[in-house]
Amino acid sequence: IFYLKKDWKNSNDEFVFDCRTTNGISSVGVTIHAILSCCALPTHIQCKLTSIALEISVRTVIALITQYRPCVVIESERMIIFEKINAYSNHDLVLEHLPIDQIYLFTICSLATMLQFKIQINNFEYDQCITEYLKTLISITIDETNQNALFDGTTNFINDQYNKLICDIYPNGLPTDISPILTALFIARQIPFELIDLIYDVRNSQCEEFSKLGYDTIIKDNKIIYNGNRQDRQIDKNLYAHDIRSGVAVLLLALYHVNTNQWNKNEEIIIHQYEQIERGYGNLLYQKLCEFGFDIQLIYELSS
């Protein structure tokens, strides 16, 4: 928590904020946090956000916050401008902190479940939505005294039959951010499913990459359907991370594929545009996968 103390009523300040990370990539997380911060400022302060990300999640946030404070989005310049308004809003904007750690936790636990190994997490942070959903899939033992948790990915799914998955606002459904990871998880365990995303109309770019590995899905509007089978055909070893969540889903399924007995150990899979994954996970996921012993290399391609 931080406090910004200033005599705002006598201020004519104008803020300019660059929404890129230290490696120069426009960040969805930074953009969304900057947008929400601008909304929390008094309306007679002009805010200009530059190098913004324009993914669908950012557009959703923009649509929501315009109810509180109008803004101008200049897509060609990747810029958002909150103009000065000489009046104070009657709305109170309440922001609820949803830690990215829970999505990271779900990512790691999904990998453990796909490759069927156990993982212990110290200083575990319980989450009503993520943790309780994981409990419906695999065995989880939580030591409430010292906040440690053991996730046993070696167990069979509690429900290994056809699953209908709904992504919606909690408690009506699962977080939409985990939907691409869910598709990778269920495909790896060869469990049929129908995933319906009631938040986003199109969140299925990972499925195009899955098909290159022989895992075909059916796309119908905002639904993804998988019949539990894999096609026996020559795979395409060049995969792409289209955005943060679909990218990490592709990474997980690729790791599953090269670490099972159906893979020639002398071959490799290349995931292009890994910087998309870095926008959400930084270097943390790569470091953890290396600690787990996976044979992966991070190569930065030189732009032409």
Give a written overview of the molecule.
The chain is globular and about 60 Å long. The protein has two domains: 8-82; 101-291, UDP-n-acetylglucosamine1-carboxyvinyl-transferase, Chain (Alpha-beta prism). It has 304 residues and is α/β, with parallel strands linked by helices. 30% of the residues lie in helices and 18% in strands. It contains nine helices and 13 strands. A four-stranded mixed sheet has the order 1-2-4-3, covered by helices on one side. It starts with 13 loop residues before the first strand and ends in a 13-residue tail after the last helix.
Question: How do the strands and helices of this protein lay out in sequence?
Answer:
Blueprint: E1 14-18, H1 28-40, E2 46-50, H2 56-65, E3 72-74, E4 79-82, H3 101-115, E5 118-121, H4 130-135, E6 139-143, E7 148-152, E8 163-167, H5 179-188, E9 193-197, H6 205-212, E10 218-220, E11 223-226, E12 238-240, H7 244-258, E13 270-272, H8 275-281, H9 284-291
Parallel strand pairs: 1-2, 8-9, 12-13
Antiparallel strand pairs: 2-4, 3-4, 5-7, 6-7, 9-11, 10-11
Approximately how much beta-strand content do the residues carry? 15-25%
Low-confidence blocks of residues: 1-8, 87-100
Number of helices: 9
CATH topology group of the largest domain: UDP-n-acetylglucosamine1-carboxyvinyl-transferase, Chain
The arrangement of helices and strands along the chain is EHEHEEHEHEEEHEHEEEHEHH
**Can you count the beta strands?**
13
**Neighbour order of strands in the largest sheet:** 1-2-4-3
Helix/strand structural class? alpha/beta
Q: Which overall shape is indicated by the principal axes computed on the Cα atoms?
A: globular
CA-based gyration radius = 21 Å
User: Termini separation (Å)?
Assistant: 42 Å
**Helical proportion?**
25-40%
CATH class of the largest domain: Alpha Beta
Average pLDDT, all residues: 81
CATH architecture classification name of the largest domain: Alpha-beta prism
The CATH homologous superfamily of the largest domain: Enolpyruvate transferase domain
Main β-sheet description: 4 strands, mixed
Number of domains: 2
InterPro entries: Enolpyruvate_Tfrase_sf, RNA3'P_cycl/enolpyr_Trfase_a/b
GO molecular function, one term: transferase activity, transferring alkyl or aryl (other than methyl) groups
